[in-house]
Design a protein that fits this description.
Blueprint (H helix, E strand, L loop, with lengths): L4 H18 L1 E10 L10 E4 L4 E4 L5 E8 L1 E8 L6 E7 L3 E7 L14 H4 L2 H10 L4 E5 H6 L5 H4 L6 E5 L5 E6 L7 E5 L2 E2 L20 E7 L13 E7 L7 E11 H6 L1 E3 L10 H5 L18 E3 L4 E12 L4 E20 L2 E4 L3 E4 L1 E25 L2 E24 L12 E26 L3 E25 L2 E2 L10 E2 L3 E2 L2 E25 L2 E27 L18 E3 L12 E18 L2 E18 L9 E20 L2 E12 L3 H4 L3 E3 L4 E3 L7 E12 L6 E12 L2 E7 L6 E7 L3 E14 L2 E24 L2 E11 L7 E11 L4 E10 L2 E4 L8 E3 L2 E12 L3 E8 L5 E7 L17 E8 L3 E11 L1
Parallel strand pairs: 1-7, 11-14
Antiparallel strand pairs: 1-4, 2-3, 2-5, 5-6, 8-13, 9-10, 11-12, 13-14, 15-18, 15-53, 16-17, 18-19, 19-22, 19-52, 20-21, 22-23, 23-24, 24-25, 25-28, 25-29, 26-27, 29-30, 30-31, 30-32, 32-33, 33-34, 34-35, 35-38, 36-37, 38-39, 39-42, 40-41, 42-43, 43-44, 43-45, 45-46, 46-49, 47-48, 48-51, 49-50, ...
């Protein structure tokens, strides 16, 4: 059959047209803020005609694949922005940029307004960029998606921050740039809070559930309007504020501890504990009898794995034409943990020989209940006057059972459990809480030039350890390791003396803050002058009572044998308790501070400079006899503290900062009273001659914010500290007796650098930081040598880092986020290098924590618009906390628990296991 050329040409054109109608094309692009050009991550892009949609990825880009040729509506929406609806014709691959207009208030210098932005990563980065000081911020969104459930653990993700852990493995205190927790302070909404700790000022951050936090700000430099007792920096927890519209965030979760799953849990009834001592119940004339002491709290029941339970709820809204806002939040965590430990304290012997006399094998069971409540109310009286009230309550109860086997380790024994053995049972219930109320006002007095703000604060922190109880019996295993065929001999279990102790302390703060700000322009240069100050009245009560209980000898004079806690008799060796000890004291502190601050900007250079003066008046009175030295005392000092912060804007995305500030660190009340306390392993004493620390600090940082959620930070810091306060052992008398006490050990320098890198490509991202810190302090320590056969003491200078300071701290998080699938996944790594955890009075005998790698995992999957399921796994690889004494053997005498050839002797190893959490979240954010 013959086809004419015109027909063939027509068929080809027709088939080509039909084919083109079936060809699929791609639409790619980015969604940005029209004003700032920043990427809007999570924006929704849709084609209604095709019922297709996608979301902007972590780098702000989006793609829609396999789009047939044609004309379509492209709709783009993002919370807080005006939606865009545009028409496009698709006849090939298309690149489309979608700029959106912000319909909420803009970000100001530090505070982000507009509820929908304030919890985002973008808001956190913008606040860091605009802040007057060197700052790192963790947003509520990052906290929600992290593997952590307490503020203490969240902080380990911040550049330059490591954490000191509690005995159960939770992060408790922040160490900023290698500076011990005493050099940092803790704020809630910018207001300093008291500590429930019975010995220190620093606040235990494991008391705060992370879900109530809007963001965490870590300030690493100070401005004159900030309190000065922060050599290392400040941790400011900004609680959730009233939203612009209805907001509900609720979650429920359960989980297990791996160690509890494997080994079960030892339980004792907290309800059996007597909350007050016999002295506290009956008065100073009362003589305690054996009947005054319960036995039930030392009766342990072993249980199979109980499940953990956690729940949170935050709800808020605005009323009366948005003039009145409310935010209410609550969190509850009921957690069971079990962990085991080996503790081998090293002792000093002649010629500097390390001797491990005891090995303690310990099994812990800890029942934690953590409660947090947050209430915020604000009222706009009129456009010029606003008042607000917020209250925060945080409560932590820890019921801990500890079962211990103590083995003597004389040479040549190397394995715990042989030789003489003691058995211990200990019940410790600690209850801590913090309650803070702040009434604030913000007032515009003259146009927008003169403004006044004030705060009135009442806060109280409390801690109690009622009836800290422990029993002991001599189990008596004996064997000779040189004759392995000789089985060990065990004599009957013989009861030993033991103690019952009550601790209770409270800190009450009354504080007032007043700030006046005047803004104007001079020579075309805008400036703000601020003056203000604070007055704080702090009162601490500390109560301590200790009783020694001794088993009654049998009628024939022999010692009683152990069967269980109920079947033996005891007498009270000191029936009056211990009311006359310095551990019972009252203390007051009055802080009066004032500052002058000038802030101005010339072209691209912003300067914040000024001076702060703080006067400290302290007094204390103890219950020791009037004849004892330092029964009471007063301390007063004044510090004048200048500071200056420069920020130069190289461009809209880049800053260069240079800062100098002076700061102080005050001793804790407990440290300056002449207390004495016999701890688990050593005696402790106070130091009434302790001086406060002062410092001069310099910071330099380069900042680049390439995109909304990306950053590159490169910084360096230098600190010169006078009279740093560190704990060490001081010789107290004959036979090398020592006491662990605070002291001023000479001046010290601390310097280092920080690197922060955050980058996203498509759905993947990496967040990493590294900090190097170096410090050095030189102190005199004792050793001994034999000279002509005579043992002689020798005192040598030894240089070391500050206690708790690690040379290397690093964090990394590998992220995957798929908005279309509603999926977030995070694998987090945290490394803390070796550091000193205990300073010895002997040369070369310091205790060093081994470098520690922690891996955690978290994931969240959103579904049904308002719901999400989430999972968290903490300590994925079961990292162990290990402490070593780096002391080689002397005269070839082997040391138990020492790695051959390494010179490292294991002093402590704690193994916590993994923790698993699975939960459901509901989020309504209109």
């Amino acid at each position: 059959m013959y086809l004419r050329p015109s027909l063939v040409l027509g068929l080809l054109i027709t088939s080509q047209f039909a084919f083109s109608q079936q060809v699929n094309h791609n639409i790619k692009g980015a969604v940005t803020d029209k004003q700032s050009k920043e990427q809007l991550i999570g924006a929704i892009i849709s084609i209604p005609e095709l019922k297709r949609n996608t979301v902007a990825k972590l780098d702000g880009t989006f793609s829609l694949d396999r789009i047939p040729a044609g004309t379509y509506h492209i709709r783009c929406s993002y919370i807080g922005y005006v939606a865009v609806d545009t028409v496009v014709t698709v006849n090939g691959n298309l690149t489309l940029n979608l700029p959106l207009n912000n319909n909420t208030a803009a970000l100001n210098e530090v505070v982000v307004t507009g509820k929908h932005n304030v919890e985002s990563e973008a808001a956190a980065k913008k606040s860091e960029q605009n802040a007057s000081s060197v700052m790192n911020i963790i947003s509520a969104k990052a906290i929600q998606l992290s593997p952590d459930i307490t503020v203490g653990n969240v902080l380990q993700r911040v550049s330059g921050v490591s954490i000191e852990r509690s005995s159960n493995g939770d992060g408790r205190y922040a160490i900023i740039r290698g500076m011990d927790q005493r050099y940092n302070n803790t704020l809630i909404n910018g207001i300093k809070i008291p500590s429930p700790d019975n010995k220190s000022r620093f606040v235990p951050l494991d008391i705060f559930p992370s879900e109530l936090i809007e963001r965490i700000e870590v300030n690493k430099t100070l401005t004159p309007d900030m309190e000065a007792d922060a050599v290392g920096g400040t941790v400011n927890m900004v609680m959730k504020n009233a939203p612009e519209r209805l907001y509900i965030n609720a979650s429920a979760a359960t989980g297990f501890s791996q160690t509890v799953l494997q080994n079960g849990f030892d339980y004792f009834p907290v309800s059996a504990i007597h909350k007050s001592s016999p002295y506290q119940q009956n008065g100073p004339g009362y003589s305690a009898t054996p009947a005054d002491f319960t036995r039930d709290n030392l009766n342990y029941t072993h249980k199979s794995a109980p499940a953990n339970a956690m729940g949170t709820l935050s709800i808020g809204n605005r009323f009366f034409n948005n003039r009145f806002g409310i935010m209410l939040g609550g969190s509850y965590q009921n957690i069971y943990k079990a962990y085991n430990s080996i503790f081998n304290p090293g002792e000093f012997q002649e010629e500097g020989q390390l001797y491990v006399k005891h090995a303690y094998l310990r099994d812990y069971s800890s029942h934690l209940t953590r409660t947090g409540l947050n209430a915020k109310f604000d009222f706009d009286i009129n456009p010029k006057h606003k008042i607000s009230l917020y209250s925060v309550y945080a409560d932590l109860k820890d019921a801990q059972a500890r079962l211990t086997t103590d083995s003597l380790m004389p040479y040549p024994r190397t394995v715990a459990g042989t030789g003489q053995v003691w058995q211990f049972g200990r019940s410790k219930y600690q209850h801590q809480n913090i309650f803070s109320n702040t009434l604030q006002g913000n007032h515009t007095i003259v146009d927008n030039r003169l403004k006044l703000d004030w705060s009135a604060v009442y806060s109280k922190a409390m801690s109690e350890i009622p009836d800290w109880a422990e029993y002991e019996y001599d189990g008596g295993f004996y064997t000779d390791p040189s004759t392995p065929n000789n089985p060990p001999y065990k004599h009957p279990d013989v009861l030993q003396n033991f103690n019952r102790t009550w601790w209770k302390n409270s800190d009450r703060d009354l504080a007032g803050y007043l700030n006046l700000h005047y803004t104007n322009t001079a020579w075309n240069t805008p400036y703000t002058i601020s003056v203000g100050g604070l007055y704080r009245d702090k009162h601490r009560d500390n109560k301590y009572d200790n009783y020694e209980l001794r088993p009654v000898p049998n009628a024939d004079g022999s010692k009683q044998l152990w069967t269980d806690i109920y079947h033996f008799n005891w007498t009270v060796f000191n029936p009056k308790g211990s009311p006359g000890e310095a551990n019972n004291y009252r203390a007051n502190e009055r802080i009066t501070a004032g500052y002058l601050l000038l802030k101005f900007k010339i072209n691209k250079l912003e300067t914040v400079a000024g001076v702060r003066a703080e006067n400290t008046d302290q007094d204390f009175d103890t219950d020791v006899p009037v004849t004892q030295n330092a029964k009471s005392g007063t301390i007063s000092y004044m510090d004048v503290l200048p500071s200056v912060n420069f920020k130069y804007e190289l461009n809209k995305k880049t800053n260069l900062r240079l800062s100098y500030y002076a700061a102080i660190s005050r001793p804790a009340f407990f440290e300056i009273v002449p207390y004495s306390y016999h701890g688990d392993q050593f005696d402790e004493k106070g130091n009434p001659n302790l001086l406060h620390s002062t410092s001069n600090n310099v910071d330099l940082r380069y900042e680049l914010f390439p995109k909304t959620n990306e950053q590159i930070l490169i910084g360096a810091f230098y600190k010169s500290i006078q009279n740093p306060i560190e704990y060490g052992f001081e010789f107290t008398g004959a036979q090398n007796q020592t006491a662990y006490m605070p002291g001023n050990y000479g001046d010290v320098t601390n310097y280092g650098f920080e690197l922060v890198y955050e980058k996203y490509l498509g759905n993947f991202g990496i967040r990493a930081n590294y900090t190097y810190t170096h410090s050095q302090i030189t102190t005199t320590k004792m050793t001994s040598v034999k000279k002509d056969g005579v043992l002689q003491k020798l005192f040598l200078n030894e240089s070391r880092p500050l206690q708790g300071q690690s040379d290397h701290v690093a964090n990394a998080a590998f992220l995957y986020k798929n908005g279309k699938l509603g999926l977030d996944v995070q694998l987090a790594w945290q490394y803390t290098g070796k550091r000193i955890v205990l300073v010895s009075p002997y040369y070369g005998f310091d205790y060093w924590q081994k470098g520690m790698n922690l891996f955690d995992f978290s994931a969240e999957k959103r579904f049904a618009k308002h719901f999400a399921v989430f999972a968290k796994v903490q300590n994925l690889l079961d990292a162990k906390y290990e402490v070593y004494i780096n002391k080689p053997v002397v005269n070839d005498v082997p040391v138990p628990f020492q790695n051959p050839g390494s010179g490292k002797t294991l002093a402590q190893r704690d193994q916590y296991g993994q923790n698993y959490i699975l939960g459901l979240r509901f989020l309504l954010n209109k």
